[in-house]
Amino acid sequence: MSEDIQNVFSNTIVPVDPRRTTLLMGSLEYVAAEVVVAKVIRKMIRADNKGWMELAYIHALSLPFMGGTAAFFDPNQGYEGDDSSGKKIGFGTHIMDGAKGIPAVILAQYILESFSKGFHAPWFNLKDLMITAGTKALTRPVVGFVYDYLPRNVQQSLEVLEQLFIRQREKSTLKTDKKSTK
Prior knowledge:
This protein has 182 residues and is an all-alpha fold. It has helices at 2-13, 21-44, 52-62, 66-69, 91-99, 102-117, 126-146, 152-171. 64% of the residues lie in helices and 0% in strands.
């Protein structure tokens, strides 16, 4: 039991752990991309504007949940190279991989709303929820598009963050592709 409690704390802190510089940089880069995409989308559709910090809190808080809440989906394909069928990873694959993060961002938004307002129902505004979910889905293709043009150290940081999501997925009890023990 005590190990489980320590694991919860560790999983929450690890994406922003200053001792893991490459992972921290990957987390900051990805959260920054998500916030910029969110601001652009909100500006384009003239939605209620959320502040930079509120968006950063929501998207940063989603990182500890990314792999675990998406475990019932197939694993992400990564940013570069070929997908499982041997074709170059395209926009459709990236958007599907981005959409796998929607449960994590919804959970993060719920947690943040609960901390700021207390438990209440309904805790969400449907329009805002759809914008946040769309932002999560669209950030992955945006990052995938610019990935080849990024400096190598930025690419490595994003790859380390992707490895964190893979590890989270592997340990999740929601994973559907578990090996049979028979």
